Amino acid sequence: MGIEFPYRLYLVVSQESCAGRSIIEVAEQAIAGGVDIVQLREKNIPTEVFVERAMLLKDVLDKHNVPLIINDNLEVAMKVGALGIHVGNNDTPPTGIRATWGAPHCLGYSIEYLEQLQTDQTKASDYLGVSPVFSTATKTDTVTEWGLGGLARIRALTDKPLVAIGSINVDNAFEVVRAGADCLAVVSAICQAQDPAKAAEGLRNEIEKAL
Ligand SMILES: Cc1ncc(COP(=O)(O)OP(=O)(O)O)c(N)n1
Ligand SMILES: Cc1nc(C(=O)O)sc1CCOP(=O)(O)O
Ligand SMILES: [Mg+2]
Predict the structure, then answer these.
(1) What is the pLDDT of residues 50-84, one digit of tens each?
(2) What is the pTM of this model?
(3) What residues does ligand 1 touch, defined as CB less than 6 Å away?
(4) What are the boundaries of each domain within the chain?
């Protein structure tokens, strides 16, 4: 609550998503191209390994003054001193995170149903993930494909910063921002690109044009 969220291009990264390259390599190139916030999203690895990976990534992000968000795992977020955490409806709820993690941290929360906008969980969050704007092969256990119309509807109902996620790429980035997103979050458009810096730069240019 109350934490600034001035970010525009959000890289969501895991070892698996990086097409054989290291997370560090992809993240550094993405930052060179205009990514200004990074989430480490590792599923099904032991917490100790998640912590190790997060520490290595945070060291590099710190050098570039780019904040780290941890997906799902509060223990990891706290241990590595991340800026924040992103949670969804199957995770520790935002109010629970606030109760455990005292100091102001950045809390992202996925919006899958319009009704969520009226809840204490949304109130407790600093930004909302519009989950997903377009369905994606990267995450298939989703509920509502919001589309541009759904995103615009959410925009009209909340002043919280909106992070659009799901099949965002250089061809739709402009219209997604115009529909109401403050920030675009991507996995494949950067992590699968042959040149992550160039891919990030292309997305960033579209964002800046749309603002
Ligand atoms: C920026 C952003 N938005 C949405 C999500 C999805 O979170 P969640 O619904 O908890 O699903 P998982 O990522 O945990 O599979 C996200 N991670 N980041
Ligand atoms: C991590 C994540 N969360 C989503 C949601 O809808 O909440 S979609 C997603 C993956 C987005 O990957 P890509 O950019 O490759 O489509
Ligand atoms: Mg989650």
Answers:
(1) 999 999 999 999 999 999 999 999 999 999 999 99
(2) 0.98
(3) 10, 12, 39, 41, 71-72, 86-88, 91, 108, 110, 129, 131, 139, 163, 165, 185
(4) 9-210
